[in-house]
Structure formats: C-alpha cells, structure tokens
Specification:
AcylCo_DH-like_C, Acyl-CoA dehydrogenase family protein, AcylCoA_DH/ox_N_sf, four-stranded antiparallel sheet, about 375 residues, alpha+beta, about 50% helix, FAD
C-alpha cells in the first residue's frame, strides 16, 4: 500500500538530511577504511533503510516501486557503498523469500532483514557462470533430511559481512530453469567458507568476495519454498525490480555528479572568467542535464507501470541500459569539467568515475539488456 503524500515527503526529507549531513561527510572515511562506519550502519537501521521493500507485517516500510526509487534517488547522492550495504535486503535477498518462501522462512528471516539485524547476500555468479546463469555448477545433492552443497561463487556482494546467503544451486543436471534451486544458508554453517575481500577498481566499502561451499550441509528446510527447481524462476521474477532499483541509483549519482561539476565550473576561473561561462563547458552541462532528466522520467514511468501490475521486463531493461550508460557519460564529463583536478582523489568526481563503471556490468550487462529489449520488442510485434 502506498504511503500518503505527507508521510512519503517526511521519509524523503529524512533520507535527504541523512545523506547530506551524515553520509556525504563520511565518504572520505569510507574510501580510506573500506567499510561503512558502525555508527552509520546503526543509523541506517533506525531509518528503516534495510526494509524499504519488506511488508510492515514483518517490520519493513512496504514501499511501492515508485516510492522505493524516489528514496534511492536520494541515496544515490553519495557513495554507492552505503546503498550497497542494504541493497540485498531490499532486493532479491528479501523478495525471493517474499515471493517463494514458506511461512516459516518468512517469519524467521524477513523481520531480521527488515531491521538490518541480518545482512543479506545473493550468491549466483560463479567463475564460469555470469551472464549465462544457467551454466552454474554449484551442486546441491539431497542426503536424507539434508542437502550437501559443493562449489564456488564469485564476486558476491556483502559476503564478508553477510548473515544470510541466498544461494543458487543445481539440483538436477539438465540445462533448464527448473534444474536450479535456491537455498537460504546462514553464516557460520560448517563448510561455508568466505574468501578474502576483492580488490576492485572502485566502490570501496561495497565488499565482495568468493564464497566456497565444501560439503556444506544444510537442512531440507533451507530450500526456498520447500520446493526444488524454483530458484532460477524466482530470481527472474524479481529481476525487473532490481534493475529499476539500480537505474534509480544511477539517476541519483548522476544528479550528484552534475551538481559537483556545475559548482566547480562556477568557481573555477580561466581567462578572467568562470569556466561555466564557456559554451563548450555549457554543452557538457546541458547534455548531462538532458540525459539525467530522460533517465529519471524513464525510471518513474517504469516504476508506476510495475505498481499497476503491468509487465515491465522490457521497460526495466531499457532503464538499466540507458541509466547505467548515462551515468558513465555524466561521470566522464564531470571529470573533464574539473580538468586536472578531476583526476585527483581529493575530488569526489574521481572516485565516482571509478564507482559507476560497475553499473554497466552487474545486475545484467548492457549487452544482456540489449538482448532482453530486442527479444521483448520482437515478441510485442509478432
């Protein structure tokens, strides 16, 4: 159920203040330490940021898709690692349980995910399975009242700090959707081994690592929904939502980048005048503003379609493709407007330039989005 206008505005104002008063000032500390300060994690919990999409019945805020993307527009104004910490709880880590979990699984995990007591982690990608998700090899073999998991997951977000892993595993050898199941595996389970945090190009503080399952035995009750073969199908059902969420994040980041670039252009003087008065600088500002506006409109339109119960597979892919490519172009222009200063780590645009490169890769590469858009377009015209 949608919030009333006053309540939504109060929430957006609270998130906006939190971003500008607490998160932006902590960006340098985050970049240096590589972790979100514990005090800020607690404040994120108090604001309800881990439970944006989880029903109030389980302690969440139960936002609509449009409300969620509006919140994410605000969260995008700062380092993406802050949002990443709560991202799995908001997205597939909770929504898979909402859609396909048993009552016991919902009652056990959703309140803890909504409060941030548990940090979720979604384990799909493997060394030889990325865009081709059905190529995954991690196996789950039934053994009495248990399943035994063996295999390796790669680049798994939040793995070093997660309390609950949603693990996609093969329960049948055939290459088909119903050969893949999802298991809810708690941290500390014997045979669950977390690798060293990855060293990445950007997004310091958004922790990723390998996750190894070495004869990791879990009870049959860990099988999502108590049913084999629904893992891949469930993940596809919530994929549109995740793509809209990431698209909204890119809109927020582009807004921050454009703001920083304009402020710098107004302060920086060359040839006796602010560089903002030069037409070639204005052209970069104008192109960035136009693309930002287009992306924002796309995301809001697709979110409203989803809230009306319409199929948004094509629209979500369009948003993901356009918004992630857009924020890369805006970041590039922001660095260019800053000139030599934009290459220096003391300016946020240098960090964002590296951070945003990931968005064209995860949650489905730009090339995968193109295939989805083409497929859905052809289908619609058949």
């Amino acid at each position: 159920m949608a919030l009333d206008t006053e309540t939504l505005n109060l929430l957006l104002d609270a998130v906006r203040r939190f971003v500008h008063e607490r998160l932006i000032p902590a960006e340098d500390e985050l970049a240096t330490s590589g972790q979100v300060p514990p005090a800020i994690v607690n404040e994120m919990r108090e604001l309800g940021l881990f439970g944006l999409s989880i029903s109030p019945d389980f302690g969440g805020l139960g936002l609509t898709m449009e409300e969620e993307v509006r919140v994410v527009f605000e969260l995008g104004q700062t380092s993406p690692a802050f949002r990443s910490l709560a991202g799995t709880n908001i997205g597939i880590g909770s929504q898979a349980i909402v859609l396909a979990g048993t009552d016991e699984q919902r009652n056990r995990y959703l309140p803890k995910l909504a409060s941030g007591e548990l940090i979720g982690s979604f384990a799909l990608t493997e060394p030889d399975a990325g865009s081709d998700a059905m190529a995954l090899r991690l196996s789950a073999e039934r053994d009495g009242d248990s399943y035994v998991l063996n295999g390796t997951k790669r680049y798994i977000t939040n793995a070093p700090i997660a309390g609950l892993f949603s693990v996609m595993a093969r329960t049948a050898p055939e290459r088909r959707a119903n050969s893949i199941s999802c298991f809810l595996v708690e941290a500390g389970t014997p045979g669950l081994i977390i690798g060293k945090p990855d060293k990445k190009m950007g997004q310091a503080g958004a922790l990723t690592s390998d996750v190894v399952f070495d004869n990791c035995r879990v009870p049959a009750s860990a099988l999502l929904g108590g049913e084999e073969g629904n893992g891949f199908k469930t993940s596809m059902r919530v994929l549109d939502k995740g793509r809209l969420h990431i698209s909204a994040l890119c809109v927020g980041i582009a807004d921050r980048l454009l703001s920083d670039a304009v402020k710098y252009a107004m302060d920086r003087k060359q040839f006796g005048q602010p560089i903002a008065e030069f037409q070639l600088i204005q052209a970069m500002i104008a192109d960035s503003q136009a693309e930002l506006y287009a992306a924002r409109c796309m995301v809001l339109d697709a979110a409203r379609m989803r809230d009306r119960g319409e199929n948004t597979t094509m629209q979500a892919a369009c948003c993901k493709l356009f918004s992630t490519e857009m924020v890369g172009r805006v970041a590039d222009r922001a660095v260019q407007i800053h000139g030599g200063a934009g290459y220096m780590s003391e300016y946020a645009v240098e960090r964002f330039y590296r951070d945003v490169r990931l968005f064209r890769i995860f949650e489905g590469t730009s090339q995968i989005q193109q295939l989805v858009i083409a497929r859905e377009t052809i289908k619609a015209h058949s």
